[in-house]
Amino acid sequence: MTRLLVPFATPDVSALAKTLKGFLHERHDAGKPPPTHVELLNLLARSAGLRNFATLKARALAAPAALPAALRAQEAAPAADAAIDLKALSPTARKTLLQFDESRRLVRLPHKLSVQQMASWALWTQFAARRPYTEKEVNAIINANHTFGDYATLRRELVNMKLLGRTSDGREYWKEPHRPDGEVRAFLQAWRAGLR
């Protein structure tokens, strides 16, 4: 059986180290032994802002070809920050950025429809083109990119906006090919740079 290589990157290694140190101190203070291999993988994933290692692995399975590009984008983010002027963004784009945490995960379902739809574009970028997905894979990708536990509503919104297509029985999903308009492209550039 071949081993799945799961890339791991963090935009701030200092924050990762502080979070990991905190987890390890809590274990030590509670009198627990050092973490096992699996526990350490989960701690690393949580330190990077993910739910657990399974979430990190699901991202790798969902878009293996996109991962190296995502890692390069994270490394280039500080340079991109300087080129983005938040004041130049539309009010909807600025409101949408506030719906995400520092790990670029959606933290709430926006009440305003235009903000909800713009946030859906960020989820759309997490899917690979020309690749079929099962509903379970779609749910895993959505779960890895939001924190409030309502993957069904987000999946339905992606389908309603025609960002994702699906068969009538819901067994297979795919990313619909789209070219976002200028407002959405500006939002996505700011979102990728981690601006809020």
Could you write a compact summary of the structure shown?
This protein is mainly alpha-helical and 196 residues long.
Summarize the biggest pleated sheet. 2 strands, antiparallel
- Estimated share of beta-strand residues: under 5%
Main sheet: strand order: 1-2
Radius of gyration: 18 Å
Number of domains: 2
Distance between the termini: 43 Å
Gross geometry: globular
Structural class: mainly alpha
Number of helices, where a helix is a run of at least 4 consecutive DSSP H or I residues: 9
Average pLDDT rating? 82
Q: Please tally the β strands and state the result.
A: 2
Helix-strand string:
HHHHHHHHEEH
Helix content: 40-55%
- The residue ranges in which pLDDT falls below 50 over 5 or more consecutive positions are 65-82
Features of the shown structure:
single chain; 196 residues; 54% helix
Structural features, described:
The chain has two domains: 10-48, no CATH class; 65-192, no CATH class. The chain contains nine helices and two strands. It has helices spanning 13-29, 37-47, 53-62, 67-83, 91-97, 113-124, 135-144, 151-160, 182-192; strands spanning 164-166, 173-175. A two-stranded antiparallel sheet has the order 1-2. The model is unreliable at 65-82 (pLDDT under 50).
Layout of helices and strands:
Layout: H1 13-29, H2 37-47, H3 53-62, H4 67-83, H5 91-97, H6 113-124, H7 135-144, H8 151-160, E1 164-166, E2 173-175, H9 182-192
Antiparallel strand pairs: 1-2
